[in-house]
Design goal:
There is one protein chain. The protein has about 190 residues and is α+β, with helices and mostly antiparallel strands. Helices cover about 30% and strands about 30% of the residues. It has an 8-stranded mixed sheet with strand order 1-2-3-4-5-6-8-7, sandwiched between helices. The chain is globular and about 40 Å long.
């Protein structure tokens, strides 16, 4: 059974088949997927397939507001294994997240990101966490900077396979040392 993480307002839990209709409701929104590099979901069956594959990986969580019960309003996860397009060394991970449009501007993404940083550095013993955003996705950029990420590099020819295009992607990083320094200043 997947770990359940909790913050003041959020529960981060594993995705379940029964979440397919809720996932479709938010992931079909044209403002969500393309900004993150994936096409809007076309039906509940597609959302269910994403839950069973992409979201079934370790360290991928549904973002749920405690006040809304158990309905996912977004997703967040740490990718612990690299790929040819996204090489990772031992002790590194890449963070990805999205929050449904009706919940933008409420501090939900930074709250979820901070919990995933805690999970990565304190529970999993990671050394570095990367997070990227495509040029023009200023909401994601702001979340990353607010959470302590610093600029690392830019890929001007990032292949966005699911959308069949090439984009500019900026990558930020936070190290374990930066995380612990940041945390000590908040205490």
């Amino acid at each position: 059974m997947k770990t359940v993480l909790e913050t003041d307002r959020l529960i981060l839990r594993g995705w379940e088949d029964r979440d397919a209709a809720g996932l479709y409701k938010y992931a079909s929104d044209e403002r969500i997927g393309p900004a993150a590099g994936w096409p809007p979901h076309k039906d509940i069956g597609y959302s269910r397939a994403v839950i069973r594959t992409v979201f079934a990986k370790d360290e991928v969580y549904a973002i749920c507001l405690k006040e809304n019960g158990n309905e996912p309003i977004g997703s967040i996860g740490l990718t612990l294994e690299g790929s040819p397009e996204r090489p990772l060394q031992k002790g590194e991970a890449e963070l990805g997240y999205w929050v449904a449009h009706p919940f933008w501007g409420q501090g939900i993404a930074p709250e979820a990101v901070m919990e995933m940083l805690r999970r990565g550095f304190e529970d999993l013993g990671l050394k570095r966490i990367y997070c990227g955003y495509f040029k023009g996705n200023n909401n994601s950029k702001r979340v990353q900077l607010k959470c302590g990420f610093k600029y690392h590099h830019t890929n001007t020819m990032c292949r966005v396979i699911m959308l069949g295009e090439t984009r500019v992607e900026h990558f930020n990083i936070i190290t374990a040392s930066d995380y612990w320094t940041q945390k000590s200043h908040k205490i």
